[in-house]
């Protein structure tokens, strides 16, 4: 089934930090002190790019998570890979990394870029983060 | 430097190969183990390195045939990590499955063939879309063994990359990985 192309939002400013929800425990190592490259491997299901939040709260909105990682937009744009971090026009407070290859199509390049992205990222929360108002937050 | 294998080591090798042949039936990889070990001795390593590698390899050889009680904790630990890759859905995305037993068996078979075991230290083991991924990393280099699901046509392969100032400057993948291939690239990782 063909999917319609995603409208591109505005390019984000270099000084912004963007955040990615750890949607499974395997985004982090067993000691929860390091990020695994799988956090930045794009698969065929990620049709529009990899999903980010403009805040940690936005990153985890409506999703089960096991932590949050962050990286600066400028650092992503500085990689010589043609990546772009753009606002998601369909979802307030969200952004997408555009230009990542699919791991199923370009394994080596996908691994290269994922490794580089890990190196410019930091762990913001290494356990589940459910801020006030999140549907999964315990009363 | 020429090195002649003493008779007792040659005997041990033969016993060892017999054991390996019995325990690991469907891969040629283990047959390379001892040959690989002695190949090192003909290289350009210093005497100290030669002594260390010889000591580790002979210890492992004897441990395997029951002559020595020394275990291989690094290899044992790694095998356990592969076996204990979580099946809990929390470790995987919603559309993702953990690796099955057959795929874990393929990964273990490659690891079992690597001598000396010390090269295997520092591995990070996890499941990724039914693959077994085993990763080693230094400040500048990265090595990742990817074992695809058994029922697919894909064979185990290795990603290896070199990084400088945060950018990967050289990388590639090696297909149809055996214990010998892995050992060669683990040596490279330390370089």
Q: Which chains have the largest interface?
A: A-B, 23 and 27 residues
Radius of gyration of chain B: 18 Å
Unreliable spans of chain B: 1-50, 65-69
Q: Cα distance, first to last residue of chain A?
A: 42 Å
Radius of gyration of chain A, taken over Cα atoms and rounded to an integer in Å: 15 Å
| Count of extended strands of chain A | 6
Q: Could you report the average pLDDT of chain B, rounded to the nearest whole number? A: 77
How is this structure best described in words?
The complex is a heterodimer of chains A (139) and B (191). Chain A has 139 residues and is α+β, with helices and mostly antiparallel strands. Chain A has helices at 56-60, 73-78, 107-119, and strands at residues 17-21, 50-53, 68-72, 84-87, 94-98, 121-125. Chain A has one domain (17-125). In chain A, strand 4 (84-87) and strand 5 (94-98) form a beta hairpin. The radius of gyration of chain A is 15 Å and the shape is globular. Chain A is built from three helices and six strands. Chain B has helices at 7-23, 33-41, 47-64, 73-83, 101-112, 179-189; strands spanning 124-128, 131-137, 141-147, 157-164, 167-174. In chain B, helix 1 (7-23) crosses helix 3 (47-64), helix 2 (33-41) runs antiparallel to helix 3 (47-64) and helix 4 runs antiparallel to helix 5 (101-112). Chain B is globular. At the A-B interface, helix 3 of A face strand 1, strand 4 and strand 5 of B.
């Amino acid at each position: 089934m063909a999917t319609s192309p995603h409208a591109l939002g505005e390019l984000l400013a270099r000084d912004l930090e963007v955040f990615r929800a750890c949607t499974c425990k395997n985004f982090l190592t067993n000691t929860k002190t390091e990020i695994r490259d799988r956090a930045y491997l794009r698969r065929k299901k990620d049709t529009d790019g990899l999903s980010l939040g403009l805040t940690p709260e936005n990153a985890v909105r409506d999703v089960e998570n096991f932590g949050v990682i962050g990286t600066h937009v400028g650092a992503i744009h500085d990689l010589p890979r043609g990546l772009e971090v753009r606002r998601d026009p369909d979802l307030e407070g969200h952004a997408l990394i555009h230009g990542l290859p699919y791991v199923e199509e370009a394994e080596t390049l996908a691994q290269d870029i994922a490794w580089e992205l890990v190196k410019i990222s930091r762990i913001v929360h290494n356990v589940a983060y459910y801020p006030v108002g999140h549907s999964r937050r315990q009363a | 430097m020429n090195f002649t294998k003493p008779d007792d080591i040659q005997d041990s090798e033969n016993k060892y190969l017999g054991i390996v042949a019995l325990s690991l039936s469907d891969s040629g990889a283990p047959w390379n183990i001892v040959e690989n070990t002695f190949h090192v001795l003909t290289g350009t390593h210093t005497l100290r390195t030669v002594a260390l590698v010889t000591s580790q390899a002979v210890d492992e050889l004897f441990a395997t045939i029951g002559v020595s009680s020394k275990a291989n904790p690094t290899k044992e630990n790694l095998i356990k990590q592969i076996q204990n890759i979580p099946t809990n859905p929390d470790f995987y995305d919603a559309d993702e499955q953990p690796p099955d037993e057959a795929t874990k068996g393929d990964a273990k078979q490659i690891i079992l063939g690597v001598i000396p075991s010390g090269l295997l230290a520092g591995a990070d083991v996890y499941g990724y879309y039914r693959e077994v991924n085993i990763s080693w990393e230094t400040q500048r280099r990265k090595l990742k063994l990817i074992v695809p699901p058994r029922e697919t046509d894909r064979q185990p392969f290795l990603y290896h990359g070199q990084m400088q100032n945060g950018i990967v400057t050289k990388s590639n993948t090696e297909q149809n990985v055996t214990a010998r291939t892995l050992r060669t690239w683990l040596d490279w990782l330390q370089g």
